Amino acid sequence: MMGIISCKESTRLVSQGLDRELAFGERVAVRLHLAICLGCRRAGSQMRFLRKAVRELAEVDLKTSL
Amino acid sequence: MPPPADFRSQIEAQRPYLLRFASLQLRDAAAAEDAVQEALLAALAGEAGFAGRANLRTWLTGILKHKIVDAIRRQAREPAMPREAEDGLEDFDALFERNGHWSELPAGWGDPDGALAQSQFFRALEMCLERLPQRTAKVFMMREHLGLETPEICKEFDITPTHCWVLLYRARMTLRECLQQTWFGK
User: Fold this and answer.
1) ipTM of model
2) B122 closest CB neighbour out of A7, A12, A60
3) Does B5-77 carry CATH code 3.30.565?
4) Which of B122, B126, B180, B184 to mutate against chain A (most A CBs within 10 Å)?
């Protein structure tokens, strides 16, 4: 189990959550941290946004460069 | 029997898109060209595999992904692939205080989806990608652009999953910072 985690640890786990399934203890620790940390909530949604943007990268440029 | 001309021309029409798709991952015009050429040849030879599928582009992209992974494997074998400073697993000392808290709270990006309608934004994103160390960028793009799973990526680069996650984490944090500076913070 994980207890209180820092912002550094929380962002690291949020990133890994995009690549693997987090363990139960990890998920709980992240959720508790995010509930009280605006910076980490922002960083997390920005990492998810990056994924979305990169997936559109090949499509969009073609549309606009025509 | 040669494939009918209309199938061939439909496939050819997808070439610019496929080239861009391959270049984003390989960062090497000649290698991208080769991968696309191989994919198109395979597609022509395997037309039967397409029969009945809804989307030609999706089908071709699926074939191309395999050719891109082959190309990455060849690139990785070349001795020129530099083992950069990124191989160390050190963290971002500038982003966090010693106790692990943010040195500077990340700014909000409002509704970032609006940026996806602007070609300038994608140019900014590409510039940020180019600034990443080579291997970090490759691993990140294999994950987010090609959509490969971590074990597959680890295998190609002969690194541990932990190392792979560190590179992905670092890429994401660096790209966020870069986009904050070059786009969202402006």
Assistant:
1) 0.92
2) A60
3) no
4) B122
